[in-house]
Specification:
Layout: H1 2-7, H2 12-31, H3 35-54, H4 73-88, H5 95-101
Helix pairs in contact: 2-3, 3-4
Length: 103
C-alpha cells in the first residue's frame, strides 16, 4: 500500500482496489468464481498499470537488467487472457458453472 500511495502517488482508495483485485481476483479466477467480474477488473487494472508505469519503458520486459523499468509485454498477456475469460466465461470446470447448474 505504501508503494502505491507513496512512490506512485495513487490515492489510497484506488490502491486498495488494486490490491484487492490482484489478490482476491487472482484466487477467484483460479477457482472460476465470478469469472467475468474479476476478469474485467483485472483488465482495467492492467490497462491502468501499463498506462501509468510501463509504456515509457517500451514493449519488452527487462530481461537483461538494462532498462530503467519493465515494459508492457506481460501486461498485454494478462489483458488478453482476462478479455478471453470475460468473453467466454470460466469454462466447464469453473465454480460459476457448478453454482449456476444447481439453481
Amino acid at each position: 500500500m505504501d508503494f502505491f500511495t507513496g512512490v506512485l502517488g495513487i490515492p489510497a482508495f484506488f490502491a486498495l482496489l488494486a490490491i484487492i483485485t490482484e489478490f482476491f481476483g487472482s484466487l477467484a479466477l483460479i477457482t472460476g468464481t465470478l469469472t467475468r467480474f474479476w476478469a474485467l477488473g483485472m483488465t482495467i487494472l492492467m490497462i491502468v498499470a501499463a498506462w501509468m508505469n510501463h509504456l515509457q519503458h517500451g514493449f519488452f520486459m527487462n530481461w537483461m537488467g538494462q532498462q530503467s523499468g519493465e515494459g508492457f509485454e506481460y501486461l498485454l498477456l494478462v489483458i488478453g487472457i482476462s478479455l478471453a475469460l470475460f468473453l467466454l466465461g470460466g469454462g466447464k470446470w469453473s465454480a460459476d458453472r457448478f453454482l449456476s447448474s444447481k439453481a
